[in-house]
Design brief:
alpha+beta; binds FE2/S2 (inorganic) cluster
């Protein structure tokens, strides 16, 4: 795999999609990568098992920004079951690849989205309160 960023990665680094927060999000999840200290928060509006809106805030490297940005595009309007099929490899593929040493960066978005699904389902089932509410 190339050590260069693809044009698509660079586009998402310089023009990230869906940056910000959602005031009435019903799921807020955070993820961090202890190896580099980067951190990510997703604000998500889910209704009837569908992602209606998603935004993110991040402190991270370019690959973390690009993978979070494209992850919001990949899950917007999708069912939670579809979100659970998203993994680091699919995120990297959607960006036309990532340098091998940057593959761990896409883990952050994928694991945060999986946690969001679990949090939403647990909240709907009445098991836990949403984070940040
Ligand atoms: Fe930390 Fe990319 S180096 S997420």
């Amino acid at each position: 795999m190339s050590t260069q960023y693809s044009a698509k990665v660079l586009d998402h680094v310089h023009n990230p999609r869906n940056v910000g927060s959602i005031e009435d999000a019903n799921v807020v999840v955070q993820a961090g990568d202890p190896s580099c200290g980067d951190a990510l928060v997703f604000f998500i509006k889910i209704e009837n098992e569908i992602i209606h809106d998603i935004k993110f805030l991040i402190k991270g490297c370019g690959a973390a920004i690009a993978t979070s940005s494209i992850a919001t595009e990949l899950v917007m309007g999708k069912t939670l079951d579809e979100v659970l099929t998203l993994n680091d490899q699919r995120i990297a593929t959607a960006l036309d690849g990532l340098p091998e040493e940057k593959m761990h960066c896409s883990n952050m978005a994928a694991s945060a989205l999986h946690a969001a699904v679990q949090q939403y389902r647990a909240t709907v089932a009445g098991d836990v309160q949403p984070v940040g509410m």
